[in-house]
Amino acid sequence: MSICEMSATALRAALRRRELSAREVLEAHLARIEERNPGINAIVTLTEERARREASEADRRLARGEPVGALHGLPMAHKDTHLTEGVRTTFGSPAMREHVPAEDELLVARLRAAGSICLGKTNAPEFGAGSHTFNPVFGVTRNPHDPSRSAGGSSGGAAAALASGMQPLADGSDMGGSLRNPASFCGVVGLRPSPGLVPSYPNPTPWSPLSTQGPMARTVADVALLLSVMAGADERAPLSAHQPASTSAGELDRDLRGLRIGWSADLGGSIPVESEVAEVVRAAAERFAELGCRVEEACPDFTGADETFRTLRAWQFELSLGRLLDESPELVKPSLAANIEEGRKLSGPDLGRAAVTQAELYHRARVFFGDHDVLLLPVSQLPPFDAELEYPREVAGVAGRDYLDWMASCSYVSVLGHPALSVPAGSTADGLPVGVQLVGRYREDFELLRVAHAFERAADGN
Fold this sequence. Notes:
catalytic activity, Amidase
């Protein structure tokens, strides 16, 4: 197995045993980037010389016998919406084309403090808006399994870089599916953590649970490793969870016998889903049954989830980007501008109703998870689509209203506040990856990872 195919946990062990040096690991990934990135466009800013300096210093540190972090020597490019000191961070926007932050945001600072090597930045749609990765600064990120197809988004560059072996770990963020959707499209694992488990700073809306940052990797064990570094309270993030970060790096093995699984291929009939995706979800339910789980077709009532998500999202985008729209409307893509304008139409009662409905959705989910341990759903409602499209206009023959409708299988789950994970589960007739979405109990992120790990091992035949 080549270095670029090794899991992050295997690389970590080899680095600590000095079977590999950080410089060797870096050079292997730089060669892979040179080979594959031109056709995929996953890494849009490459900090090659900086990475070499950091890798050499990491090797010297280990040789001196100094303590090293959990991610010692592992190369990572950060999502281009995550502030990275001294590295151009554009948010995929012409307005930020030359933006170079003076310091790291909290997530990046934690990853670097743990010993990761900065490779540069991964592509994202303009201001992370949308589940297809393209922007006027860097263009389209393509699916490594079929470059004519979308890699998903908004963490599409991260997922494509993972799937093509350009990096062993990746960071991302998720409001309506931006960690889960690209993971499904590219055949990797993406976790939307419980709000607050991974604190965010700076953050203009620190009290909102709608958007979270989190880990992506090629295996569930690697996601757990990365989450152990990302997680942990910070006083600058008022929702941050006061639990030790190490709780996510423990033993993953779990016997699934007796686990209660509720599943639905279409969220209780609330959304259209392409047949190839629905079949993968059904097959996953059967696999859980073969593992000794108690499986039934059931899910919470998602009535009101669409309006709630749209309201809260529009409010958040207007708050964050309204000034840019006023000052430079020509620099904002039409779909994002329309969403900001929707935010401006909102009234106090509109926001109040969204808050009440979100509470109702939470309690419906609470009751559901009183009788079930895990909810099994589709991640995306359709397989990876044509990369030249802005977004798919219809799903299973049902026309969508706009670019949010095809993401409902993830966005509905976002408003619940539960941890949710995309794990590879099958493929289409054309060989395109399809993941399934596992939703865990409220704030039981690590238990969800244990379930996903067992499912992953069964899928791999281990």
